[in-house]
Amino acid sequence: MKRIFDFICALIGLVLASPILIPVMFLVWIQDWHSPFYIAPRVGKKEKLFRMIKLRSMIVNADKSGVDSTSSNDKRITGVGKFIRKYKLDELTQLWNVLLGDMSLVGPRPNVKRETDLYTLEEKKLLTVKPGITDFSSIVFSDEGDILKDQIDPDIAYNQLIRPGKSMLGIFYIENRSFLLDIKLIFLTIVAIVSKEKALVNLVVILRNCKANSLILQIASRKKKLSPLPPPGANNIVTNREGRVE
């Protein structure tokens, strides 16, 4: 049922989004005369690599800088790219990956191999299901760029402030996933575009009903400033640029 639902919704979504995506693709293309798409290698289910299709929001060859985490004031982001990121248009093109079967509408967000190679044994659970366009963490950390803004090293900041909560929420989704939960998360993802505050309130209710622990509820509420935490399955906070737990 999940695969059929994913396929139908992705097809409808691409058709409905085309009046927005096509003009934006053209704007991306004319700014530097390069492809409006960024084909991003990502790790999927069972650690299988796939090519994720994103609407390009950065300069050409931005990935060659060696920095995986992106802050909102990253100089690699183009003028059109800021608009794309603000309204999450780069996520819409991933509906094509859903059609192909590489991704699902709902599931843990896919990461680059450099990051998955650093996963703890507990975090490896994230690779037992298809990655998705949205999940709990996509709503909670939709402001990832702002969280990393002005950080001396975005990659270290990501591993200390975002990775722990993102992984916890991803694992929690896997342990509690259901068709009804997917519907709720898709709906809240849409709500978050208009009001993240309302989306978070309802998301915390869902987590509480699913018996989430107090730490997950605290992270998901985003009422307190994020503080460094060790990733799930580790005892120590990441302290080096490679994201390794020492």
From TrEMBL:
Key word Disulfide bond present: no
- Ion transport as a keyword of this entry, yes or no, is no
Which residue numbers delimit the Bacterial sugar transferase domain? Answer: 2-194
Recorded GO molecular functions are:
phosphotransferase activity, for other substituted phosphate groups
TM annotation in the entry:
7-30
Q: Which UniProt keywords apply?
A: Membrane, Transferase, Transmembrane, Transmembrane helix
Record's PANTHER family?
Answer: COLANIC BIOSYNTHESIS UDP-GLUCOSE LIPID CARRIER TRANSFERASE (PTHR30576), QUINOVOSAMINEPHOSPHOTRANSFERAE-RELATED (PTHR30576:SF20)
Record-stated family: Belongs to the bacterial sugar transferase family.
Protein name (database record): Sugar transferase
